[in-house]
């Protein structure tokens, strides 16, 4: 009998905890998808039913009139910022509230990745080494991703490929085969193609920030969570962004 009572108490405590956690956004008037206990909004990602980029885009598109929305990454509440003007305030005017990044890798497990620029809070000698490691990896990953998507898009759009080929061929003939940093600046269409590829397939899906001081996003209460992300990939795909 005592075991049953203890089980009921633990179950009630767990139910109360998850209720308090999962109503955190609704108490602040922030829109969100209804989370599942423990796995929260990460269930489809964990089960490999949806890629994290597709899951993020689904949330972004679900509430088109909202300036920001909420999600739970397991038990961690995160606010996704969608409004351009609000992004400007957070990243420029009110940046003092968002000096830190979220910790993605435990510093004790991997001191280099745990102290790279993405997770950086305080500069030390190890931080300098960590940045070098990050720059080395980021330089390979972002460039290779951009090149892969560029080749894919060019292959899918032969008219773009032909026009780009003609521009490069003309440049080659005009400069007698010489190709350097200065001369490549005249390839305007190449610049347009690369810029469009980076717009469509940005290497980084989102930018993150950690709110270190109470900040009013425009809702009745001050701070619904500490973690904020800016969904840059989806913002640049919206027509209204360019109006």
TrEMBL record:
Compartments where found:
Endoplasmic reticulum membrane; Microsome membrane
Gene Ontology cellular-component terms for this entry are: endoplasmic reticulum membrane
Which EC main class describes this enzyme? oxidoreductase
Question: Catalyses which reaction?
Answer: an organic molecule + reduced [NADPH--hemoprotein reductase] + O2 = an alcohol + oxidized [NADPH--hemoprotein reductase] + H2O + H(+)
A GO MF term = oxidoreductase activity, acting on paired donors, with incorporation or reduction of molecular oxygen, reduced flavin or flavoprotein as one donor, and incorporation of one atom of oxygen
Q: Does the keyword RNA-binding apply?
A: no
Q: What is its EC number?
A: 1.14.14.1
Please verify whether the record's keywords include rRNA-binding: no
Name of this chain's protein? unspecific monooxygenase
